[in-house]
Amino acid sequence: MDADSDRVAHIQAEWHRERPDIDTFPQGIIGRLHRIGLLLDQRLAEVYANFDLSYAEFDILATLRRAGAPYRRRAGELADHTMVTSGGLTKRVDRLIVRGLVERRPEASDARGRLIGLTDAGLSLIDEAFTAHMAGEHRIIEELGTDAETLEPILRRWLGILEPPVNPTHSTPGRS
């Protein structure tokens, strides 16, 4: 599909017909990025489904795995490091507990605090799922050929403009 026949081009053409006084150039970039994001989410969800995981469940397991051994985080910290809202976190963690992939235990230094950690089964599953996830992302990026090398610094710069810098002790949510 060339750029003149995609859905965003069609929408821009309709707006140009109805409102020729407004420049829709930004819609071409932002609309396509939005559509690409939705389509990427669909492709990634297919990989997660192979492991009977939703995006949010994959994100939780991956966040715990990235924490390093013993693969635990405080519940509040887990919410900060994922794309899952704190309200949705409890429900998803409960489902992962039922599946035997994570466990919840009291924090030694704070009787009210809770640590969420990977079980051996959870560690094994996320390692396998992450391997498949990265293979899927490589396949997607390979579709761009050498354009990927041009696109990455542009996206990095733009994200740096739109998003505050990451504090190394408190990472920003993102793709796991």
From TrEMBL:
SMART domains in the cross-refs: HTH_MARR
Alphabetized Pfam families for the sequence: MarR_2 (PF12802)
Family matches, as InterPro entries: HTH_MarR-typ, MarR/SlyA-like, WH-like_DNA-bd_sf, WH_DNA-bd_sf
Residue span, HTH marR-type domain: 26-160
Stated name of the protein: MarR family transcriptional regulator
Organism field: Microbacterium schleiferi
Species classification: Bacteria, Bacillati, Actinomycetota, Actinomycetes, Micrococcales
